[in-house]
Amino acid sequence: MARIPYFDLAEAPPELHALLDGRPPLNIYRMVAHGGATAQGFLGLGSSILRHSSLPARLRELVILRVGALCGSTYEVTQHRRVAAQAGVPAAQVEAVLGHPQGSADKEPFDSLEHRVLDFTDAVVRQVKAPPEMFDALAALLPPHQLMEVVMTIGYYMLVCRVLENFEVELEDGNVLDSHGRWSEILGKN
C-alpha cells in the first residue's frame, strides 16, 4: 500500500493535465502529481527522454531496465519490460539485464556498444562517476549528445526508482501480462 494517498488527478492544475493528456492512468503519475511544479518538470524530462532523445530506443530501454534492476524497483522493471519489448529488445537481453543486479550484466546477448553502455550504467549507479577509461571508451563510440542522453537517462530513472520505492507506489490493478507478453487494457494498445 502506498505510503501517502494517491493524488486525485481530477484536481490537478491545467498545466499538469496537459502533460498527462494521452497517458495511461498509472499510479506513478498519481503519486508524482503531489509535487506540483516539480511534477511538471519530472514529467517533462521523462517525456523528453522517451520521445525526443536521439539515443536508439533499444539502448535507452536497456539502460532503464538496468537502472530499475540495480535500484530494486519492481514497478519500474515491470512497466519497462513492456516498453522494451515494443522497442524491439529481445527477451534474452531483457533477462540478462535483469538477471544479475549485484554484478555486471552478462556479455553474451549484447553487442560491444550495448555492453559498454550497461557497464557504464552500472558504474554511474553504483559509483556516481564512471572511471575515466570507461567514460573515454564510451565517448569514443557515442557522439557527445548521446553520451549526455545516456547519463540523463540513468539519473532520471534513478530518481523515478527512488520515488517509486520511497512512496511504495503499487502496480495498477489489472496490470498483468498475458501469455503473449501483452498488457491489460489499462496500458492501452498492445
Automatic annotation (TrEMBL):
Q: Where is the Carboxymuconolactone decarboxylase-like domain?
A: 38-100
The molecular function terms in GO held by this entry are: peroxiredoxin activity
Entry's InterPro entries? AhpD-like, CMD-like
Give the matching SUPFAM superfamilies: AhpD-like (SSF69118)
Q: Name one Pfam family in it.
A: CMD
Q: What is this protein called?
A: Carboxymuconolactone decarboxylase
Organism from which the protein derives: Variovorax paradoxus
